[in-house]
Design brief:
Length: 293
Amino acid sequence: MAKELLPYQEIERSIQTRFSSDIWSPFMTAVRDYKLIESGDRIAACISGGKDSMLMAKLLQILQRHSEVPFELVFLVMDPGYNEPNRKKIEQNAELLNIPITVFETNIFAVANNTYRNPCYLCARMRRGHLYNKAKELGCNKIALGHHFNDVVETTVMSMFYSSQLQAMPPKVHSKNFEGMQLIRPLYCVHEDDIIAWKQYNNLEFIQCACRFTENCKECESNSKRQEVKNLLKRLQKDNPRIYKSIFNSIHNVCLDTMVGYKTKGKHYDFNEIYDNMSYEPAFLCQDSESDD
């Protein structure tokens, strides 16, 4: 008679069976292709309490168990000032998923909510700094965040629409302020729809918005620039089902010979500086050409 599985074991099994091709495989693709994990790494899997970071933590936990590359994990939860129900929900989900979390508290919400000039930006910057600092204190050399495939695409579009630049979200980056530290994004190739499907299949509920600055999170989200881009891409997807994939692939195939300016390592190069290095006329694809394979 087969032994009955515990809830967290059922959830783990779903990842490696039902969601093997949609979640496990693209997760492993990102880890392998972008060399996110190396022997001897001590990684802080940063958990905000949402579906993305919780799934990321579970994937890393499973990988550590079976990987031939030895690495250590710390499951790090920063409490920026959650209300009691959200804090409790995070702890309950961590217990359900059998993830041994390390929690530390900050006053980020209190500080950010007292500024009238872009509190969301300040909150994000403070969060990142606190996570790096705590991870380094715990002997980690990397922090892992739960940004997924859709985040990468939407961020790229947002940078063009609202920041007047072509800027993507890389799968890993070196920290500018914390020497020797890196940030990795293990869900880089995992689609949000598949994360939602996994959550629903396992009847899981995660916190959606813990912000203390806006009490009505649905209204906050619907008015955000990111939500505008999400809605736009969904409309475009009806005519072109590959629109997300096309944009994702485009950031892997940037043709600098066609750019009239670019920035690298903090320095800007304008067209007249780079023109003489454009030694040939690039071949432009016609509008109807398929270029994302």
